[in-house]
Amino acid sequence: MNKLPVAVIGAGYWGPNLIRNFTSCPLTEVVAVCDANKARLEQIGRANPHAKMVSSIDELLGLPKPPVAVAIATPVSTHFPIAKRCLEAGLHVMVEKPLAASGTEAQALVKLAEKMGRVLMVDHTYLFSNPVRMIKKIVDSGDLGELYYVDSVRINLGLFQHDINVIWDLAPHDLSIVDYVLGLEARSISAWGCSHANEDIEDIAYVNVDYGDRMLANFHVNWLSPVKMRQMIFAGSKKSLIFSEMNSSEPIKVYDRGINIGASSEEERQKLLVSYRSGDGWIPHVDAGEPLQAAVRHFAECIRDGTVPISDGNLGLRVVKQLEAATRSIRAQGGRVILANGKNGNGQDARAVRSEQLPAGV
Q1: Which end of the chain is less crowded, N or C, counting CB atoms within 10 A of the terminal residue's CB?
Q2: Where do the domains of the chain lie?
Q3: In the chain, at which residue ranges do the beta strands (DSSP E only) sit?
Q4: Is pTM, for the whole model, over 0.85?
Q5: What is the topology classification, in CATH, of domain 130-287?
Q6: 3-class secondary structure, 251
Q7: Pick from 136, 122, 131, 126: which is nearest to 73 by CA?
């Protein structure tokens, strides 16, 4: 089978990783790299002599043998116009997270991809990591029981972004993981954040997401932490799981620790008794592997087989809507934003009560 010709648009921070993985993937070949920085192109061109180096989208689409697919690794504000142009040209598109800078833009890309019959995939790389796949397998098996909450911490010192806040930079990772593992849509969001380096860009934030059915998730994202932490807790009625990304040898631990809730004697049956459970721990084996390599291969397979990506445009759209709602909530001093497809506690359509959740003008 002929290799799928792919172009990488954007050769800055993430672009070289895409170039390396598309080059090493047995299903793809990098035929072009597009970047406005000519010095950067010259450097990449020396390491990739068989690929065309172009400095504009017009030049890329005008090549005698244009690519069949593109991977976009440019600033978030440019995702929509570049992806739109490529989809309109009939190309399959993979976009670095988040999919777009707004829900309106993300929705437009999803509809355009459907209209053109092209694959639209978001590079939510964690969904292709073996630890996250193992987490989904354990959750789906029912070993954890009914999930009570997810608690996530993703903090480090920098890298400061200039066009997006810390939520748009870091939270897409964990929001996409929860979406993939739980298969639940967020019902409402409340967020708190503040700025220290740039008054217009939050560098620390806490995001609380209600998924309904007593399932809550809390996300702490931070560019100011003196230490780097990457941890998620999935707590269930039977067992709990801790995902420690920084522990490469033992990234997942399952604990038989928690509470048991039951009724007392007949005359006190209306009371709930809580007892504590402390059992054994379990460390499942997780195979090594590069998530980005799995992601680019999945992209190629979806194009070849006509299948829907795990991180398709709709998943990307859901994440963008949550990022947008979290930012709105911060502007409203933590006011709860009910998402359009959610229901409030009384079963009312969320759109009917949204105006009551935020101060006027927000």
Answers
A1: N
A2: 4-124+291-313, 130-287
A3: 4-9, 28-34, 52-54, 69-72, 92-96, 120-123, 147-157, 188-194, 204-210, 216-222, 224-236, 240-244, 252-263, 272-282, 337-338
A4: yes
A5: Dihydrodipicolinate Reductase; domain 2 (3.30.360)
A6: coil
A7: 122
Q: Locate 344 and state its tokens.
A: 């409030």
CA-to-CA distance for 15 and 236, rounded, in angstroms?
38
Tokens of 302: 């979806």
Q: Is the separation of the CB atoms in 272 and 261 below 8 Å?
A: yes
Token pair listed for 37: 């920085």
- For residues 7-46, one letter each, b for 16 or more C-beta atoms within 10 angstroms of the residue's C-beta and e for the rest, the string is bbbbbeebbbbbbbbbbebebbbbbbbbbeeeebbeebbe
Q: Are the C-beta atoms of residues 245 and 233 closer than 8 Å to each other? A: no
Which of left, alpha, beta for 209 (phi over 0: left; psi -120 to 50: alpha)? beta
Burial tier of 56 (Cβ tally within 10 Å: 0-12, 13-18, 19+):
exposed
Number of residues assigned to the chain: 362
Q: CA-to-CA distance for 92 and 114, rounded, in angstroms?
A: 11
CA separation for the pair 168, 320 (Å, rounded): 8
The tally of CA atoms less than 13 A away on the side-chain side of residue 143 is 18
Cβ distance 241 to 286 under 8 Å? Answer: no
Provide the residue-wise pLDDT of the chain in tens; the chain has 362 residues.
589 999 999 999 999 999 999 999 999 999 999 999 999 999 999 999 999 999 999 999 999 999 999 999 999 999 999 999 999 999 999 999 999 999 999 999 999 999 999 999 999 999 999 999 999 999 999 999 999 999 999 999 988 888 899 999 999 999 999 999 999 999 999 999 999 988 889 999 999 999 998 899 999 999 999 999 999 999 999 999 999 999 999 999 999 977 776 655 555 555 566 666 676 789 999 998 999 999 999 999 999 999 999 999 999 999 999 999 999 999 999 999 999 665 433 333 333 333 334 433 34
Domain 4-124+291-313 has CATH 3.40.50.720: yes
Q: 343: exposed, middle or buried (C-beta count within 10 Å: 0-12, 13-18, 19+)?
A: middle
What are the backbone angles phi and psi of residue 89, rounded to the nearest 5°?
A: -85, 0
> Other C-beta atoms within 10 Å of 280: how many?
9
